[in-house]
Amino acid sequence: MEFVARCFLPVRQNSLTLHVIMAEKDCSENNTNHCAGRKQPPCSVFAGMRPAVVAGRPDGRVIIAGPCSAESRDQVLETAKGLKDVGIDIFRAGIWKPRTRPGGFEGCGERGLQWLREVKNITGLPVATEVATAAHVEAALDAGVDLLWIGARTTVNPFAVQEIADCIKEKGGDVAILVKNPANPDVDLWIGAMQRLYNAGGRRIGAVHRGFCVYGNNSFRNPPQWHVPIELRRRMPDLQILCDPSHIGGDVALVAPLAQQACDLGFDGLMIESHCSPQAALSDAAQQLTPVQLAGLIASLPVKNVGGVSADLMVLRAEIDRLDEELLAVLEKRMSLADEIGRRKQAFNMPVLQPERYGKMMDSRVQKAMELGLNRDFVASLFSAIHAESVSRQLKLK
User: Fold this and answer.
1) Cα(394)–Cα(388) distance, rounded to whole angstroms?
2) Whole-number Å distance between alpha carbons of 286 and 296
3) Are residues 200 and 115 in the same domain?
C-alpha cells in the first residue's frame, strides 16, 4: 500500500509546546515508536496472517458502519436496514460502553447481542462489536458475532489484551479481530497487542487508526498523528489497516474530510459511526452520520487505484530519492559542525543549551520557511528535532 498525502487538516497546537514535545521525544535514546528505521519490520512474526475483513465492494475498500452504541432493538434494526441499502460490508454497534466518567449511558449489555443476531437474520449483514474482557469475547462469539474489535483503552493494557487472547485461543483461535491503536501513540504497544492475538492462534487480524488522546484543546477529538499508522504500515506492509474518522474528528463536519485523507493515504477501509437518528443518540451524538449522509460520503470518495505505477511517477520518485540523499548528506555535515561547536563550548566551559541562540535560530528558520511557502509548524518541528539531536550529541561529548 502506498501512502500519498494530500493536505492534512491543521492541528491547532501552540508552536512552543510543539518544540518541547519534539525535543523531549528526539532526545530519548530508547524512543523507537516515532522514528522510522530504528527497528526492523516484524513481518516474519506474523507469517500467514490474513485480512480481518474481506471487502465486498467493487472499489475494494472495506466499509464498517453502525451506531456508537446499541441503544434499543428498534434503533439497531432501523439503522441496520438503512446501512444495508448503503452497501456496507459489516454492521457495527457497541454493546458494552463504559464512559470516561460513570453516570451516563454505558451500553445495553448482553441483551444487545440478540439485536445483532436479528440484524444478521434480517439484513444478511455480518455484525461486529467491541470486546474488553474474556467474558465479552465469550458472550459475543456464542451469540454469533462475526467480527470483534479491541478499543483504544484496552489496547493500551497488555494484561487485558492477553486475557482476550487467551479466551480466543480457548475458542479455537480462528476469530476475525481488529485492534484499534492504543490511546497513546505507541507503535510497539499496537503491534504487541496484535502479536498476542496472533500467538493465540488468530490469523484474521487488522488494525484501526482512531487517533490519539492529547491534553488540552484541539481541532480534533483525537488528533490523527498520521505518522504513527504510516510507521505501522512501514513495519507491517501486509497488515490490513482501516481508519475511524468518527473518533478522530468527533464532529460530523470533520468525518468526510478525514475519510478523504485516509483514502489519500491508502488505508484499506473505513469504520464510521452511523445512527438512524443521531440527534437522539445516547453516546457520541456529535460524530454520527445518518445512513443517507454516509451514502453521500462513500459516493464522494475516489475509486481505489489497484493498478501499477506509471513511468512518470517512477521518475519523480527517483528524484525524491536523490534529494533525500542530499538531505542526509547535509544533515551529516550539520551534525559534524554541531559536534565541533560542542567541543568549543566544553573548552570555554559554556553550557550546551543556549536558549537565546535557539530562539533566534527558530524564528529565522520559520520566517524563511514561510517566505518559501512551507508549512510553519512542519518546519518548526523539523528544526526542533534537529536542534534536539544536536544537543543530545553535545551532551555525550567527552
Assistant:
1) 10
2) 18
3) yes
Half-sphere exposure of 178 (CA within 13 A, CB side): 32
14 lies in some domain: no
CATH of the domain at 44: 3.20.20.70
Q: Are 197 and 223 within one domain?
A: yes
- The overall average pLDDT reported for the chain is 88
Does residue 335 share a domain with residue 265?
no
Q: Please write the tens of the pLDDT for every residue from 79-127.
A: 999 999 999 999 999 999 877 788 788 889 999 999 999 999 999 999 9
According to the model, what pLDDT value does residue 20 have?
34
∠ CA 342-343-349, rounded to 5° = 85
In which domain, by residue range, is 381 found? 311-396
Yes or no: say if 218 and 254 are a contact pair by the CB < 8 Å rule: no
202 and 325 inside one domain:
no
85 with 134, same domain? yes
Whether the per-residue pLDDT at 145 is higher than 80: the answer is: yes
Give yes or no: residues 287 and 391 share one domain. Answer: no
Q: What is the pLDDT of residue 44?
A: 65
First to last CA, the chain: 45
Whether residue 269 has pLDDT greater than 50: yes
Cβ-contact 215, 242 below 8 angstroms: no
- Give whole-number Cα distances, 109 to 69, 114, 118, in Å: 10, 10, 16
> How many structural domains is the chain composed of?
2
Residues 6+ apart with CB under 8 A from 55: 61, 62, 89, 268, 269
146-184 per-position pLDDT tens digit: 999 999 999 999 999 999 999 999 998 889 999 999 999
The pLDDT tens digits for 321-355 are 999 999 999 999 999 999 999 999 999 999 999 99
Of the candidates 217, 274, 265, 214, the one whose C-alpha atom is nearest the C-alpha of residue 242 is: 265
